[in-house]
User: Fold this.
Amino acid sequence: MFLLYGGLFFLLFSRFVFIQVTGTAEGQVLSTKADSKYSREQVIPASRGKIIDRNGDVIVEDTLSYKIIAVISPKATNNSNAPRHVVDPENTAKVLAEYINLPEQDILDILNKNIKAGKYQVEFGKSGRDISYKVMSEIKNNNLPGIIFVQDMKRLYPNGQFASHLIGFALKEENEDGEAVPVGKMGLEYIYDEELTGTHGKVNFKGDTKGFLLPNTEKMITKPQDGDNIYLTIDKTIQNFLEDALNKAEEKYNPEKITAIVANPKTGEILAMSQRPTFEPNTREGLSTNWLNEAIEQTIEPGSTMKIFTLASAIEEGVWEPNATYKSGSYKVYDRTIRDHNVYGWGTISYLEGFQRSSNVSMAYLLNRIGDETFIEYIHRFGFGEKTGIDLPHEATGTVSDKYPINRVTTTYGQGTTVTPIQLIQAMTAIANKGKMMQPYVIEKIVDPNTGEVISDHKPVEKKSPISAKTADQVKEILASTVTSEKGTAQRFKLADYTTAGKTGTAQIANPEGGYFWGRNLFLYSFLGMAPVEDPQLIVYVAVHKPKLKDTEVGSEPTSEIFNSVTENSLKYLNIQPENLELASSIEMPNIVGENVVESQSRLESQGLKTVIIGQAENVKEQFPAAGTSILANGTVFLQGEGNIKLPNFSGWSKRNIMIYKSLSNIPIEISGDGYVTSQSLTAGSVVSKDTPVVVHLTTPEETKIAPGLEESMEVPPQD
Assistant:
């Protein structure tokens, strides 16, 4: 017996020594097995990148939401007085069906199926995700055993129908690990899905079977890397002006569709872009089979807006004689007859009057003077027939129709040849910008929010000039006459406070079955214009397809209502000097950085400039506009000094001026609304610091009437 037990003890002792020395048992490393038993890992979710407008306003971002989980295993209730699992599947299904988009029977089937399978917990797919805080709270109030909520992230489009076909949307999809992650499905969300997608972080630690941290252990944290932020050239305020105008036109005229673009002619930046029909990206309500961004991916026959570039070609070639005359009404091209839009014409008239009246026949005669091949060359110079290179995919090229002589004639007035709206915008920059044609773009920059690094920074791109500055200015003056002349077709596009130049268009729409649709309710009505004429700050294109016009209405009414509203409000928002104010000479802004604040203020005001002082003491640390910039004689200069900052009276200030003041003062000013300031949380004269929050409320010009002279007193000329 002694030898037997002694031998067993020796074997057991030997086993202990072997395990202690080698750290293995049965071929397994025990330390690794222990680590795997006690190691825990939790995912730290990364946020998808934001999409932000040119002023820093968020257009798209992730927001907190909740996911429903049903704990169905009785094991969850072990050693607990209250049930921690679903004990009544029928009642649970009945209650949940009131709050999530899933039928009661389907919920019950999911619960029973997984209870039978012995699962610990179950989710409800797409219907159980993206639950708002309000809905989560209401479900909790029902005290359903086993129903718990896990924090999640939801893609939020706070502006609703806002450049929806440009922005697009993202939806959650399950990856290989069964995790639901947002994936871009359309628009910028799809195009830049890789850049917007972040990388999840994680926390590694040792914990017990219930997940609690073991004593004397440390957490190993890998920080999440949020997706890149995309900054757009889009201006949220101007985009809202456009969306409101399109909504009103859609409701009033019920057109087949509308396309509209607002651009900065000096840079090519797209400030607003939208179309109708559109959709609500949060719910996809209204999203039809058409997922195309019409301004970029769809071609049209532009109609008489093309006459702008025929006129420019004639002037550049030196064959334009505005006072020369021709016989309007009809023009014969072999076996085809070109007619004016009123069929009979206006008798013998000048070429200038012909352009103002939008005579097709005048274009045919001009083609004879320019020459067929030369004209087509100019059309290509203006960028038609090729992509603009805008930073969006699937751009259409359009087709310049020049195979037969009749094609070249019809191209002069925009029939037969196809273009995209964005091509018209690009070509119009050459007219508005003294012959300099600017490539359009919508992405300002892409920034890594984790490091602040600018990954991609887009700058204005100037293309080869199709015409001279002299020609551009002459075309601009003639386009202005279509608005001001009693014979002009664009009289409805005259603005209250600004000068306008542009060209109306009425185009036949091709019938897929052959030929063209015909009838006043079956045309494409458009306008391509700029304002103000003296120094164009905006180009606006509007196209309305097949509006339902009353017998007393004409095709220019829906386009003018959109153009006038958007252009007038946008120019006021941008602080552009109205035409009806007394014209002021420009002054080159001196360099006053380092000079005494009070002395600088007196010096500037002696030149007719207005000043806003930020910090009354010592010397000027920063100025706006910068030295060397041209500024109107009655414009406003911001001077940053030192010492206490006293709030000015913000009433009537535009959002742009508030942003300038905020940037120079570093005061945390919160801006509510769009348009012009109507109230502020702290009264004028209050002493504030960088830690003093200030709230200003803005209202659009349509909602309130700004006191005369108030806005112009805060005039700050736009900086190129």
